[in-house]
Amino acid sequence: MSAAIQPYTLLDDDDCEVRILRARETLGERLVILGHHYQRDEVFRHANFTGDSLKLSRQAAASKADYIVFCGVHFMAEVADILSRPEQISILPDLSAGCSMADMANLQNVERAWQELSEILDPEVSITPVTYINSAADLKGFCGEHGGIVCTSTNARHVLEWSFKQKEKVLFFPDQHLGRNTGHTMGIPLDEMVVWDYDKPLGGLTAEEIQNAKIILWKGFCSVHQMFQPEQIDNFKQKYPETLIISHPESPFEVCQKSDYIGSTEYIINTIANAEANTRWLVATELNLVNRLHEQYKHEGKNVHFMSPNVCMCSTMFRIDPQHMAWVLENLVDGHVVNQVSVPADVADNARLALNRMLDVSP
Ligand code: 13P
Ligand code: SF4
Question: 212: Cβ below 6 Å to ligand 2?
């Protein structure tokens, strides 16, 4: 019988720290901990490898450990399960750590969209389905089955270039902002990127709009990045005109248009790390990461600021806490697997197809 989480919820962070370190030592190389950049520091510091979604997928695929404990959100642990060997076990310390953007598309409404699009054109001939990695495994499976592909914020442009070599149009889900921002950098006019509203018949579009579109963007968004607004940049720059703006491509188009740099979490970190001393940065991405950058680089005179006056934290990433970490790791020490994330084989096979296509075209 595995131990229940309840007693762990009463432990303070320092107790958990000791337990986590002890369990890590006992498990040795049988365990690898992967940590996304948005994780809180008390968890993040235990990661063997940290990264953005692409880097962590590669780490999961390369890992030889028996247990992959993913400090991130559910779709990341699914990807680790799909890309690792069958006998490896992928664990998400709190199974309720989902992604609200990923939940905005599901197999049912994507299949319905595919069906409705077939009233206007033959999607199998004309459309490459592209899913952002922030999506459930069955949507990656859908893409695998229909000649499509997965992308991350790092490789979205390479993936779209590949997609347009296959078919003339792309159906991009779930994040409209990543799709639009990437399409725009490729020179696709805004009016050729239409938004598919999954609550409306034919996505709320006319047949003509669909025929003229290069990219059909799903009406999804990240509630964290949606909070950033162009006025926040204008207000900040009034005070500090020398500020450099750097944004994650999940941010709205108008914010990215006013940014000096756009890229994934890993790109944001590297850009600020390699910047000249005494520079000032306004950053549009999740708060835990921005706070970490602020602390890390203040001694170089780099001033790193968060773009929004409001707190924009990824509340689901935050669910991975030291208490859940101590719980899953001590259970592993005792030979119990708790919170395994396991993708059914038929879904995993098609999803792996779409993920491997992505890994092949990624720089
Ligand atoms: P990246 O770390 O891949 O840039 O993605 C950010 C994100 O929202 C993860 O869910
Ligand atoms: Fe999902 Fe946004 Fe959180 Fe990333 S930051 S996991 S996209 S809700």
Answer: no
